[in-house]
Amino acid sequence: MFNAANTAFGTTVFCDKPTQDFHSATRLLLPNVEGRNSTGLLCNSIVKPPVNILFCLPKPVDLRAIIIKPDVARHRVTHLSIFLRKECNKRDRTGAALQVSRPGDIIRRLEQLRPIASVNLDKHPEGSVVLLHTHQKRLLPPCAFPNNAPCIYECEVSQAWNGAFHNVRFVLIRICRLASASCVPCLGAVELWCVSPPDYIESVGVSDTRRVKQTETVDSGCSYTNLPHDEGVVNSRALPDDFVDALTGELMREPVRLPSGNCIDRSSLNRFWTERLANCPHDPRPVDPFTMVSFDERSIECDGSLKQAISDYLDRCKQLGNLCSRLDNWAQVSIPLTSTVVPQLPTSSESEGD
C-alpha cells in the first residue's frame, strides 16, 4: 500500500477558500515518501465553513483507508464530510462529464460526487484522528497517523459501499463546523492509503504492509448516507448562491466582484486586507484573496444590480415573515362557535297526513 496524498505520485490538492501564508492546501501533500509535513492547512481568519478541499489523483486507485487529522495547533474541526468521485467511463466523456474538468467545477457539482461519511467529533477528545476504511483488513504502514494517535474516530464502510472505493480519482473533504468561534477551518494532515500499482512500488519502494498496531478506539456513530445538518451551513444553503459571500458564507450587504470572478462583501474584503497588512507590513498592496494577485483598488466597485437583487430578496423575506406572523395571530384568536339551524325536510308520512 502507499499514501496517494504525495507529490511523488502526482497528486494535486485544491482549497476553495483563501489560506494563510505557509499553510496552503499543498501542505497536506507529502514532499517525499519518508517525510511528513506537519504544518497542515489553515484558512484565513475571516473564512467560515463550509470549506472544500479536493484531492485530484493522477490516475484511478483503489482506496483502502482515508485518515484525517482535523486540527492544527489550537484550531480544530468538529464536523466534516467525505465525498468520492470515480474516473469517468469512455462512453461518458461527453456532455456534462466533460464540463466538470476544473477543481472548482467538481466542487460545485456535488451531485456527481458520492457522499461516503459524515463525521461528528463533538464528543471526542482533542487530538482524535479520523480513520475511514473498508471492511477488508486494515493493513497500514507503521508511519500512518493512527499508530501514534491518542484516540481514533473509526468508521468502517459496509460492503455495500465498498464499490465506491474502486477507481477513485477525486477525494473531497468538506469542513462543516469548528470547535469554537475562535477557530478557523483547518486540516492537520490527510492520508489516502491505496493499493500500490506495481510501477509505483518499483519506483518509490513503498511495500510495507504490516498491520496497524492496536490503538484505543471509540464508537464513532458514523453515518454513511446522511450529510451533516449543521445549522449554520443549512442557513447559508437556504440563501441563493449568488447572494452569499464567497469568504464568510454570509449574506452580502455591499457586494463587490473581484478580478478572480468571486463576489464578496466589501467589509470582508477590508477585513482581509487589514489582517494581511498586520501580518505582512512590508507588502501593503491590495490583493485578491483567492489568487493573492495585486490589483488596483479603484477598479473594485459595488455591484449595483446584485445589491438591488439582495435588497428585494430581503424585502420579500420580511413581507413573508409578517404574513406568517399575522396568520399565527389569527389562528390563536378564539372564534365563538355559532349554531346553525338546518331546515328539516318533511318526511313522506307527514306529507300524506297534510
TrEMBL record:
GO cellular component term, pick one: nucleus
UniProt cross-references to SUPFAM superfamilies, sorted A to Z: RING/U-box
Family annotation (Gene3D superfamilies): Zinc/RING finger domain, C3HC4 (zinc finger)
Sections of the chain in a coiled coil: none
Pfam families (alphabetical): DUF5918, U-box
One MF term in the entry's GO annotations: ubiquitin-ubiquitin ligase activity
Biological process, per Gene Ontology: protein polyubiquitination
PROSITE patterns: U_BOX
Protein name, as recorded: U-box domain-containing protein
